[in-house]
Amino acid sequence: MLPIDDTETLLSAEDVIDVIDAIGDRDRLEVAYTVYDHPAEGITGPELAAEIGATEAEIEDRIDALVDGGVVAERMACLIDCSIDGPQYELTQFGRLLFEEGVLSLFDAASAVSEL
Fold first, then answer.
1. Is residue 116 part of a domain?
2. What is the per-residue pLDDT across 52-94, written as a single tens digit (0 to 9) for each?
3. CA 100, 104, 20, 60 torsion: positive or negative?
4. Burial category of 87 from C-beta neighbours within 10 Å (exposed 0-12, middle 13-18, buried 19 and up)
C-alpha cells in the first residue's frame, strides 16, 4: 500500500499521480514556475504567454492540464479588479508546497551535488 492510500490522508494516490502528471512535462513545468515566480498574486493568460515567449493558444492546454492536476487555480479577476479582462491564474496551496518543498528543493540539491 502506498502511503497516500491511507484513509487518513487528504489526497488519494490518483490525486497525487494527476499532480505529478501535470507538472511532469517540461512545458507545463515552465508555466507553473512562471505562475509561482510572478511578483503579483495572479497572472493573466496574456501576461503568462508574454513571459514564456509563447502565444496564448500555445499555453492554453498547459494551463488546463495544470488546473486539472490541482497545481494551478483559475480565479475570476473581475472579483478582484474589474479592470482585468479574463481569468487570472495562481498556484494552489498544494502547488506552492509542491514547488517550495519538492521541485525547488530538488534543484537546490542538484546544485549542491554538482559543486562537490
1. no
2. 999 999 999 999 999 998 899 988 665 656 666 678 899 988 8
3. positive
4. middle
Nearest to 67, CA basis, from 104, 40, 47, 94: 94
Cβ proximity of 90 and 42 under 8 Å: yes
User: For residue 89, what is the enclosing H or E element?
Assistant: strand 87-91
* pTM, 2 dp: 0.74
Structure letter (DSSP) for residue 97: H
Could you give the CA distance from residue 69 to residue 31 in angstroms, rounded to a whole number?
A: 13
In angstroms, rounded to a whole number, what is the distance separating the alpha carbons of residues 116 and 111? 9
Q: Number of folded domains in the chain?
A: 1
Residue 65 lies in a domain: yes
